[in-house]
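Form 12-C: Joint structure prediction
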Amino acid sequence: MIFRVFNKEELSALFDVLAENIIVGPVEKALDKDGIPLYSFELVRDYEELRLQYPSTKISAKKYFLPHNETLSSFSVDKEGWTKHVDYNIYKPLVFFGMHACDINALNKLDKVLLESVYPTPYYGSKRKNMFIVGVNCTPQSHCFCRDMGADTVQHGFDMFLTDLGDRYFVEVLSAEAFNYLDRINSREAVEVDHLDYMKRVKERIGKFTSKVDTTDLTKILDMEFDAEVWREWGEKCLSCGTCANVCPTCYCYGVDEQVDLDLKGAHKIKHLHSCNLLDFAEVAGGHNFRPESYIRLKYRYYHKHRGFVEAFEESLCVGCGRCGEACLADITVPEVIASVRGEG
Amino acid sequence: MSGELSYLGVSLSRPRVAFFELTSCEGCQLQIFNKEATLIDFLSLVEPVNFREVMDEKSNDYQIAFVEGAVTRQDEVVKLQKIRENAEILVALGSCACFGGVAQLKNRFNDMEWVKKEVYGDYPIDTQQARPLSAEVKVDLEIYGCPIKKEEVERIVVDLLVGKAITHPKYPVCMECKANENICLFDLGEPCLGPVTRGGCDSWCPNSRMGCWGCRGPAEAANMDQMIKIMARHGISRETMLDRLECFGGFAGYVEEMRTDETNEDIQGNSE
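Section 2 - Result
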C-alpha cells in the first residue's frame, strides 16, 4: 500500500485536477425544519459546494450506478420488422469525491452479485468500471452501525481514501491513476509522525460508535425465529412504501416494464428499482401474490440482507449506514428489529 | 385524422372515443389537450366522436367513453346511464369520477337542503350527495388523479389498443418520491399523505415541495393507523390530516372510521 500526505490547502488543487472529469460529491441539498442541513450526492461544479465533512446523506449514491429508472433497450418497429438498440447509459466516467467507507463497501458487495456472478449485468458494470472513487473518513453518527457489519473500514474498491488529520490529509493510494493525480498536486510520502497521527485518529473514531447490532450467530437465530411474533409487530408498523430500499446503498431488486411508444413506431424496456416491501413486489400474472402480508415482506428483506447473503458470500448485504432507519417514517430501524428478534428488544 | 394503425404487422382498430363531464371543473379533459408535444400522436390512435371542449360534432356511436366528474343531480344519473348503454368500455376519468372528488366535500353536511340554501339561496336547483360513477353504473376502468396525468392516459390508451393488461401501482406515492430523490416533506415539517396514497403520479406534488393530498385515493396496503401516528409524532393536528383525507373522497371509508372514533372518544370523555 502506498500512503501519501498533503496539506489541507491542497484539497482544492486535487479537486481542480480531478475536475477534468465530472465530479459527484456530497453537497447541501436543503435545510430541514430545524435548520439542520440535509446532504445528497450531486454533480459538483464548484469546489465551494463540496461538503467533505458531511455526516451522512439521506439517500445513497445509488442512482449513479443503479438508476431508479433505466431504459435497458429500445426497439424501432416498422413494416419489415423490428430492430433492438441497447445502451448501457454511460457516456463519461464519473469521479466520486467524498464517499464514506460504508458506501464503498456497498459497491463491493454489489460487485459480488452484479459483476462476479454467473450473469454479470453490463448496465451496472459499465458504470462501476467507469468510476474513480475518492473515499473520505467520517464521524460515526447515532444511527451508524457499520462497525458491527464489518463495513466501517474499506480495503478495496476505491482509488484513494482520505483521512483528515487536522492540518493535512492522509491518503491511501490504490490505483495508478490516483497516484498520478496526487503527483500533480503538492503531496509527499507519509512518514512516521503521519502514521502515528493516523492511528490516533482511527482510535478516536472507534470510540464514537453508539449504535449496536449483535451479529453473533445471527443467521442461525434468524432461522430459529422465523415464526417469531415480533415480525408481526414490525409488520403492523410497516407502511409498505419502499423507502428503506430506495435509500439503501445495496438494495438492487428491480422490475422490468415494457411500454409501446405512443406513435406505435417503437417500444422501450424499462427497469425500475423495486422494493420487497411493496405489495406489488411478489404479485405474478393472474393476480396471485406470494407475499400479501406486510410482516412477511418486511421479514424477507431482513432475511435477504442478514441471512441469505451471509450464507452465499460470508458477509452481510447490509453495510450499517442506518439510512433506512433514518428515512423510515414508521421508525423501523435495523438495530431495533435485530435486537427484538434476538429477544433483546 | 385517418390511416391504418398497426404494430408489429398486426393491424389495430382505432377506437371511437367520447368524452363527457358531470359535476367537475373539466380540468381532466383539458389535460388531454394540454400536452401539445404528443397531441397529434394521441389523436392518431383514437377517433374522438364526442368531445364538447374541442369539437362541434356529436355522436353516440362510440366504443370507449371517458367520463369526468361526480354524480350530483338526477339528470346526470340519466346521462350516465345512457353513456353506459352506448359504451363498450366506460372509463372514470379523474378523482371526481372515481371517488366523488372535491364535490363530495359537501357530503360531510348531513342536511342537503341546508347546503343548497347556503350556496344557492332560494334558486331552485337539484342537488344530491356527490357520488362516484361506480355508485350508479358499472365502471370498467378508473384513471385516478386531480387532475389525471396525461402520460398515464397515453400509456393506458396504448395498452388498450395493443391488448396489454392495464395495471395501476398498488404501492404508495413514497416509492416514486424517493426514486425522484425528493426531500421528505416531514423533514421539512409539512404534512403529506404520500405514505398512504396510491402512486402512479410520479410524486407530482412532492416534486414541487408540496405535501400529498391523497387525490389518487388509498394505496392498496395503506397503513392508516401508522399514518395517524406519524402525523401526531410530527405535531400535525388530526384535523389537518382529516382535511386532506376528506378532500378528494378516496379515503371516505377511513375518514368515517376516524370521525366515529372521535365521536366515541368525545362520548367517553363527557361521561368521565
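Section 3 - Comments
The CA atoms of residues 109 and 115 of chain B lie 7 Å apart. The radius of gyration of chain B is 21 Å.
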